[in-house]
Design a protein that fits this description.
With about 220 residues, this protein is an alpha/beta fold. The chain has a single domain, classed as Aldolase class I (TIM Barrel, Alpha-Beta Barrel). It contains ten helices and nine strands. Strand 6, helix 6 and strand 7 form a beta-alpha-beta unit. The longest helix has 19 residues. It is globular and about 45 Å long.
């Protein structure tokens, strides 16, 4: 299964990031994004929530059940081994973190999931890769820029990079052409105002626009 997910990340290039969204609105958003071509969704752990483990597990489980065979569901902002195990038990297929924690990476791989830890420096990137990460998330991308990614990729061209943080429809193509295999897209694909308005068609349109950029760049 992990090979299928890895291939999906490389081929599709768009990971929708969802924060603090649960229940019916989360399911409606997933359906809307899938209609636009997005097949990867990251449900993040809200580290400040006292019930973070059961709440996130329920969301992942419900989403994985609803979108089975259509969308790959993963967990984001995963900071501990316990959270890796919770996400895996709930049905997550990939684990994304904002940082490089070797224990989290190792547990992710032991459980057969795809590992995408975050990194900001070449040392972190190499550590993540050598520990077994399938991809390395360059984070926060908006503060580093495409020039940074190009420069890092010159010596580290064996590492597959995903960018997250400030990626928009306006700069997504630039990131892909700089060498990123994909990107985590947050607020643009989970806009709270649109969710409150129930404008699911707009989410489908936005998802489609991101997918079209991937097709344009990769042919």
């Amino acid at each position: 299964m992990s090979e299928i997910v890895k291939n999906a990340i490389e081929k599709e290039g768009v990971i929708a990031i969802v924060r603090k969204l649960y229940g019916k609105p989360l399911m409606q958003l997933a359906e809307a994004l899938y209609a636009g071509g997005v097949t990867l969704m990251e449900v993040t752990f809200d580290q400040a929530a006292p019930d973070v483990l059961p709440k996130t597990a329920d969301a992942i489980s419900e989403l994985a059940s609803l979108m089975k065979g259509r969308m790959h569901v993963g967990a984001g902002t995963v900071l501990t081994v316990e959270q890796v195990r919770t996400a895996a038990s709930a049905g997550a297929e990939f684990i994304i973190s904002p940082n490089t924690d070797t224990s989290v990476i190792r547990e992710t791989k032991v459980l057969g999931l795809v590992s995408v830890p975050g990194a900001m420096t070449p040392s972190e990137m190499v550590t993540a890769n050598q520990t077994g990460a399938d991809f390395v998330k360059v984070f926060p991308s908006i503060d580093l820029g495409t020039r940074f990614l190009k420069n890092v990729m010159a010596p580290l061209n064996h590492i597959k990079f995903v960018v997250t943080g400030g990626v928009t429809l306006m700069n997504f193509e630039e990131w892909l052409r700089a060498g990123a295999v994909g990107a985590g897209i947050g607020s643009y694909l989970s806009d709270k105002k649109l969710i409150e308005a129930g404008d699911w068609d707009e989410f489908t349109r936005r998802a489609g626009a991101f997918c079209e950029v991937v097709k344009k760049v990769r042919g």
